[in-house]
Amino acid sequence: MSALDAEIRDLMRFAAQRSMLPRFRNLAAGEVEMKGADDPVTIVDREVEAFLTEALTKLAPGVAVVGEEAVHADKSVLDHLSGQCWIIDPLDGTANFAEGKEPFGIIIALADAGRAVAGWIYDPNKDRFCHARAGEGAFVSGERIAARSTGQQQPVTAVSRIFLTPEQSAMVDAKLAPYYTLVDIPRCAAEQYPRLALGENDVSSFKRTLAWDHAAGVLWLNEAGGKAARLDGSEYRVDQHDAPGLVGASSPAIWDEFVARVLA
């Protein structure tokens, strides 16, 4: 593990131990608000983002920071995604956390010219630290890993219907249900991407592709030997986060078969 990886891990672990874990199942009245439908924010989101923004700015002065809550307050922060920037999801899985459920985590990516060049995903409940750099492989707590499938005859596929139209939901039933074992998503990208490489899920389809949710996970899964890409096979870019549609799979072959069925 590089010195930078270790430093990012320590920052994430400290933030979780100071702000996140003490408030898990212990949020006070008024410490949860709704930014929109099915989109809560807690005091933890804001505390962790403020801490990480300050810490990363000290670590790399001059590199912009794009945090989920900063973007909610000021959409112009998104302009930094086309240059060199840190991308922070301070509490991924906020809805779970607010309901007193696991999983949840912290995600950080480093991007340049619209592409993620490094990513870090931390699960404070498991103390699991996933990290990757472009061209250097994927790791879990310092050990290099290779993506593996579940081995099931019907690949295990995590699909959320939350943001699907009735027509899209009907497509899932017609085109996917006969060929795949459909399971619920964990509502937490910090958990979903590890599942795709560690033999728990084979495929996951995402409709929303916000940079703070996906930049680190896409890089990590691809570096592990799985595949995450747009439905047309093009790469995921952080500066095109508002484009819909992204599929992650435990192998390129499983990805190809799934997308062929979706587009048939």
The helix/strand order is HEEHEHEHEEEEEEHEHEHEEH
Assign an overall shape.
globular
Class inferred from helices and paired strands: alpha+beta
Number of helices: 8
Number of strands: 14
Radius of gyration: 18 Å
**What is the percent of helical residues?**
25-40%
Strand order, largest beta sheet: 3-4-5-6-7-8-9
Cα(first) to Cα(last) distance is 43 Å
**Biggest sheet architecture:** 7 strands, mixed
Mean pLDDT: 94
Low-pLDDT stretches are none
> Which band does the percent of strand residues land in?
25-35%
Structure in words:
With 264 residues, the protein is of the alpha+beta class. It contains eight helices and 14 strands. The protein has a seven-stranded mixed β-sheet with strand order 3-4-5-6-7-8-9, sandwiched between helices. A five-stranded mixed β-sheet has the order 11-10-12-14-13, with helices on both faces. Helix 1 runs antiparallel to helix 2 (43-59) and helix 6 (189-197) packs parallel to helix 7.
